[in-house]
TrEMBL record:
It comes from Vigna radiata var. radiata (Mung bean). This is Pre-mRNA-processing ATP-dependent RNA helicase prp5. Residues 63-73 have a biased composition (Basic and acidic residues). The lineage of its organism: Eukaryota, Viridiplantae, Streptophyta, Embryophyta, Tracheophyta. Residues 21-30 have a biased composition (Low complexity). PANTHER family: DEAD-BOX ATP-DEPENDENT RNA HELICASE 50 (PTHR47960). The gene is LOC106769694. One of its GO terms (molecular function) is ATP binding. Residues 1-30, 59-89 are annotated as: Disordered. The keyword Aminoacyl-tRNA synthetase does not apply. The keyword Hydrolase applies. Keywords: ATP-binding, Helicase, Hydrolase, Nucleotide-binding. Residues 10-20, 76-85 have a biased composition (Basic residues). Gene3D superfamilies: P-loop containing nucleotide triphosphate hydrolases.
Length: 562
């Protein structure tokens, strides 16, 4: 009996199904799809979506619905393509070449389609689109093939010259959340992006040095936003590199419960990118906070020093792996009697965390704590050009001597103290006056191996004093301070006091720019009684102690005038 056409067709289809099932079991679904597409392409039978394998999507046809065919256009001015389409097209071409080495690689086409869809999504939804992209990059940081491309890696390395997009997104989300909740009152009408402090902070932050901010007593909302956004960017980048953190990444110490709530409010919008913030303060019970720390693993921790030390003592939290430490309102913390608490917290942290300190420049009570915390090279940050801000943490030691011989003895004594307690990378500078006899002091300094440049011009002075092989102790003439970088010297000695108070202020505000352990020694005699009043004003303005001998010298000058 002759079989019908239907039976023959069913038998043929059955063989094809068996063949396909046996061949697809040995390969993955992705490879099988590529093989099937190749067979259809050779047979001349293509699906509608297969047209993408032969043409690139364009801004006019992002999903390639026309299959690469151009629409009929009348003669007229050419339409300008969008500026953002160029880098996407270039990235697609690179992926085509880096795929299978063939023009019709399916891998490159899929990436091109994904990029175009993301572009259209962002173009249509603005803020929501940005949030979608950030979330996709942030969520467990699943690295795509495009992220491994060399051009993308080179772009990620250039983070020090300009803020990254992630920093801008964090600032934008924080600002929108605060303005929506009416919690932003520090700078109404001003955008976070236009804050000059933030750009200066990011420039200092990218150097990797510890920061000391001396503009005010406490951090503002904008300063907190820039600080936590930069920390979030660093955290995200390190996790993308494969690093893991057992405990919190950022520790933000505050003086009070109200400040802790403020910082927590600023950090709350970062939860959408996987950065969780926990606030610890005496306003809640200790048992409740202990149970809460067991159930969550925050990336950012905001706390008062005394409550944090209590939790660390009962082993409720581990802060040994802290990578960044921010201390806000240091002077208020020290006035509350928590100086030893800060030192204990610093000892609990292993390694060398990146530190940011907001210090009150009007008080010298916190100077010992700052010098204990900031032991290495620092970057000073302040948009306030006042004397108190620029000379913060620089101790002014003023001594009134009875004679010229007494000045030499005490100047040499200061040198001996420096050499006995010198730390690494610390330097001392003597500033001498040519109109005052100092032959004996020069002779002593030469015998101790000091580098002396008194009669040299500014060019030779820069070569000798500011070179890479700079001596630990140097001596220059007062006329050369304008051409000498005195910011690299931690200790400056004035064996003979300067002829004007403006020169003194210039030295005070330009020395020890890279250290928190600056000391300025000044030795006066009765000849300098006319400058005693102005010097007392500077000391009181900077919150420094005024010695009784200087007050007596000032009173004697008033008696002479009378």
């Amino acid at each position: 009996m002759v079989k019908g056409e239907d039976a023959v067709l069913r038998k043929k289809n059955k063989k094809l199904r068996k063949k396909n099932n046996s061949s697809s079991s040995s390969v993955s679904a992705k490879v099988a799809a590529v093989i099937a597409a190749k067979k259809r392409r050779k047979a001349g039978k293509r699906r509608m979506c297969q047209g993408m394998c032969f043409s690139l999507p364009t801004p006019e046809d992002p999903f390639n619905d026309r299959g690469g065919k151009e629409e009929f256009q009348t003669k007229g001015p050419k339409k300008n393509t969008h500026l953002k389409s160029k880098p996407i097209d270039e990235m697609v071409r690179l992926n085509e070449k880096s795929g299978d080495g063939k023009k019709g690689a399916v891998h490159g086409r899929n990436i091109a389609l994904e990029l175009q869809r993301k572009k259209e999504f962002v173009k249509a939804n603005n803020d929501l689109g940005q949030k979608r992209i950030i979330n996709s990059e942030r969520k467990k940081f699943k690295v795509t093939e495009m992220a491994h491309h060399p051009s993308t890696q080179r772009h990620d390395c250039d983070i020090s010259e300009f803020p990254s997009k992630f920093v801008f997104w964090c600032l934008s989300s924080i600002e929108n959340a605060l303005r929506h909740g009416d919690a932003y009152t520090d700078g109404e009408g001003n955008s976070f992006f236009l804050n000059p402090w933030g750009l200066e902070f990011l420039k200092c932050y990218s150097t990797g040095k510890d920061l000391m901010e001396t503009s005010g007593t406490s951090a503002t909302t904008e300063q907190i936003a820039w600080t936590v956004s930069s920390a979030a960017d660093t955290f995200s980048r390190k996790e993308r590199e494969g690093l893991s953190f057992a405990g919190p990444f950022l520790l933000f110490l505050v003086p009070s419960q109200e400040k802790a709530v403020q910082v927590r409010t600023v950090c709350k919008p970062l939860k959408s990118v996987g950065i969780h913030t926990v606030s610890i303060h005496p306003g809640a019970s200790l048992d409740h906070q202990i149970q809460g720390m067991k159930t969550c693993e925050p990336e950012f921790l905001v706390s008062t020093p005394e409550r944090l030390l209590e939790l660390v003592s009962v082993k409720a939290i581990d802060i040994s792996g802290i990578s960044m430490l921010v201390i806000d309102g240091l002077n208020a913390i020290c006035n509350a009697g928590h100086t030893d608490t800060l030192k204990s917290i610093k000892k609990c942290i292993s390694g060398n965390p990146h530190m940011v300190i907001f210090n009150d420049c009007h008080s010298h009570l916190s100077i010992p704590v700052v010098q204990y915390l900031l032991t290495g090279s620092i970057c000073r940050l302040s948009l306030n050009n006042s004397i108190t801000s620029l000379s913060s943490c620089t101790i002014q030691s003023v001594t009134v001597c009875s004679s010229e011989e007494d000045k030499v003895i005490k100047s040499v004594k200061a040198l001996d103290q420096f050499q006995n307690s010198r730390t690494q990378n610390s330097n001392m500078l003597y500033i001498l006056r040519k109109d005052v006899k100092c032959h004996k002091l020069l002779k002593i300094l030469k015998s101790k191996g000091c580098s002396i440049c008194i009669d040299s011009d500014s060019a030779s002075l820069d070569d000798s004093v500011d070179s890479d092989k700079k001596e630990v102790v140097s001596a220059i003439a007062l006329e050369h301070i304008s051409t000498t970088d005195i910011g690299t010297y931690d200790v400056v000695i004035l064996p003979s006091f300067v002829p004007s108070i403006d020169t003194y202020v210039h030295i005070l505000t330009n020395m020890a720019r890279q250290s928190a352990k600056g000391v300025l020694y000044s030795f006066l005699t009765k000849r300098d009684r006319e400058l005693a009043s102005a010097l007392i004003t500077v000391l009181e303005q900077c919150g420094q102690e005024v010695p009784q001998t200087l007050l007596d010298l000032h009173h004697s000058s008033n008696m002479v005038e009378d």
